[in-house]
Write a structure and sequence with these properties.
The protein is α/β, with parallel strands linked by helices and 157 residues long. The protein has a domain of 99 residues: 3-Layer(aba) Sandwich (Rossmann fold), CATH 3.40.50.1580. It has two helices and five strands, in the order ββββαβα. The protein has a five-stranded mixed β-sheet, covered by helices on one side. Strand 3 and strand 4 form a beta hairpin. Keywords: Glycosyltransferase, Transferase.
């Protein structure tokens, strides 16, 4: 999924919630959408709504009831479902460990790199007949990270 250019307006922000975020309590105008994608069924129905006036779509990474272990999450279907409802940016929230004591459990961290240790799942949208080369030197959108950092500072997080 590519990032929109600076002049494009974000249509809807996709949020993938993990163990620490299984719902959006302040979401208004809620609508549930059952999706089927070329990659299968997402982990949960897509929840559409407005969060402080911003259109968002939300998927529960581990499924409704937190029943899908990390290695069995269909990340491609989750992303494709969010794209199908108009998401132009994606925010993924996770409860994970850290490689540094500077970020103890409970810390709010905006990452710029990560190590994915999950196995047993497809990690690409490409396959036989569709070859693509995607740079992974900077896997996190710098623009989105800057916006989130400013919002966290404003909220004193």
């Amino acid at each position: 999924m590519s990032n929109p250019s600076a002049h494009q307006q974000i249509q809807r922000i996709g949020i993938i919630g993990g163990s620490g975020l299984q719902q959006l309590p302040d979401l208004k105008d809620i609508q549930l959408v059952e999706c089927e994608t070329a990659f299968g069924t997402p982990s949960s129905p897509v929840t559409l709504g407005n969060l402080n006036g911003v259109p968002v779509a939300f998927v529960q990474r581990h499924g409704t009831g937190h029943t899908i272990p990390p290695s069995f999450i269909n990340v491609r279907a989750n992303i494709a479902a969010l794209r199908s409802v108009g998401c132009t940016q994606l925010l993924s929230v996770s409860a994970v460990g850290s490689l540094t004591h500077d970020a103890p459990p409970g810390s709010f961290v905006l990452i710029d790199q990560f190590i994915d240790r999950t196995i047993k799942r497809d990690k690409t949208f490409f396959g036989p007949g569709l070859v693509g080369h995607v740079p992974f030197g900077d896997p996190v959108c710098g623009r989105m990270r800057s916006v989130l950092a400013a919002a966290a500072e404003t909220a004193d997080v």
